[in-house]
Model the fold of this input.
Amino acid sequence: MTASRFWHPTLMSILLAGALLVPLAPSHAGEKAKGTVTYKGPKKSFSVDLKHVCLVKGPDMFDEKKTIRRLVFTADDFSKVINEADALNAFDGKLMEGIIIELSDGPRLNYWLVLNNQLVQTSGTVDLVALKSTANTPTRLAGKITFDDSKSDGPKMNVEFDAPLLKSFAKAR
Done:
């Protein structure tokens, strides 16, 4: 059998079309992040290597006419939990270790840090300049977040990320 018989033009067209469609399939896994979040508590310090990030959006809990976006940074892939949630805040209680950065139309980033199987929790806000985006569209957010909120008993964070939109929620709770 010659190569020209084996690689029929129709077969080649089908294989090429299939190869082109694979990258267009939506990702259901948490995208990659690289960095750390550290927190010094009263008795113990914590440092978490952030390896995954999920971008989600949905209505604001206090004003459902506003849409907010959240970046969920974790050491382990958390995307399955988010995909199973039916509301934007439905997965919060299942996060055992990580940090959620909330982006709204205000001048600050809100954060909620949870560590040590939820035994350590803190929240706060940092100036919007902490986020340096290299891509910021409705379906993707990429860049770097760097801040030190330790003087306010908060965390230090330094992470690079690239997050396509994982899920859009219709309700806040």
User: Anything to note?
Assistant: The chain is about 15% helix and 50% strand. The radius of gyration is 20 Å. Residues 27-168 form one domain. Residues 6 and 34 are 45 Å apart (CA to CA).
